[in-house]
Specification:
Layout lengths: L2 E4 L9 E7 L6 E2 L4 E6 L4 E5 L4 E6 L6 E3 L3 E6 L30 H10 L4 H10 L17 H9 L47 H15 L3 E9 L1 H15 L8 H15 L5 E3 L4 E3 L5 E3 L1 E3 L2 E3 L2 E2 L7 H17 L14 E5 L18 E16 L2 E15 L5 H16 L6
Parallel strand pairs: 12-16, 16-17
Antiparallel strand pairs: 1-8, 2-4, 2-7, 3-6, 4-5, 6-8, 9-18, 10-11, 12-15, 13-14, 17-18
Length: 427
Amino acid sequence: MAVPVIMPKQGQSVETCIITEWVKKKGDAVKKGDILYTYETDKASFEAEAEADGILIDVFYNDGDEVPVLTNVAAIGAAGESADAFRPGGAPAPVAQTEATAQPVAAVAESHNTSLKLKVSPRARVMAEKNGVDLSKVSGSGPNGRIVASDIEKSISSPAAAKAVVSAPVAQAQTASVITQSAYTPPAASALFTDNDFTVNKLSNIRKLIAKAMHESISNSAQLTHHMSADVRKLLALRAKVKAEADKGSNINITLNDMVCFAVIRALEKFPEVNSHFLGETTKTFKKVHLGLAVDTPRGLMVPSVQNVDDLSLKGLSNRLRDIADQCRKGSCAPEILSSSAASFTVSNLGNYGVEMFTPIINLPQAAILGVNTIVYRPAEIGNGAFGFIPVIGLSLTYDHRAIDGGQATLFLREIKNQIENFNETI
């Protein structure tokens, strides 16, 4: 008896997932536990396993399709068995997409009415409107011929794709005029380049999500960055002690970033207004510190949240930060903790890359983010009228000026500096 393959629900906030690749194809024999396909949420990737033995008798979605959770994506059964009972909406199997042939654009009013009757995903419709794509000229590759976002992307990138340009009516009684646009002609300057001079790479789904979040952050907040540096001689001394203990067989590995994060947590306890979310007409101030940590992974930047870090010792914080970073790099991080609303404050450290100063972008709705820079040596008084070069670390605080005043931000940044320069934790 055939059984459905269901798109799992990864967390309460996840409504759709994107199928990245079908490992098994229609007609393949599968055994329970075999990997059928891979899929991803906002930033985490997963593998879907077969829950029964049999034949993958049908597949309802293609690579790149965005699928609502708990929806049937395929069916497993015996050879020759029908999968129609499990097909979403009872639709026929998806037809392979064929490249649309450029045709003259119909009258604007008629085209508009026709597009409304087409089966189009909301995401594809918005994309088409933004790029002036005539939906009636697009072949849908989704279930039952539904037009999905990948169809619009293909139409935009195809030189033969015709786009309708819609003009506003001059008067209510006036018939909409027909405006056509020929296939895109590259500017003359493009003749300077050959196909061997460049490559065109499609953005990954994660890169698209990051780009959208960063653009929304800059567009929808009043961001300002203050820079300050802190003497890190005490941090370096403790780090040297940790390395010496490691040479003796200790498994403790507290990094400079762990120490900086520990200092940030202590500063947030003294300035709770920074440990907050700005929600337009209200501010949500947290009683506990939920620290977001920027982690660079092969799939892109991820910012998981570590909950209740103000309850942890320096050693405990180090272990938690290391564990969560490892989960992100392996792609096994829970989707819930990757949401920007799961953290109350974020730390992004580019010091290991030698960056001396940068302007981090806030993960809305958080009210601020701290950028940690590399250590440099600067001249300073070292006592008894003598001067020398001391190691200092750059600190870049970006804050939402709608939620935090400049004075508050400066005092908070100075408190982080004080916590670093007076660091007295032990291992």
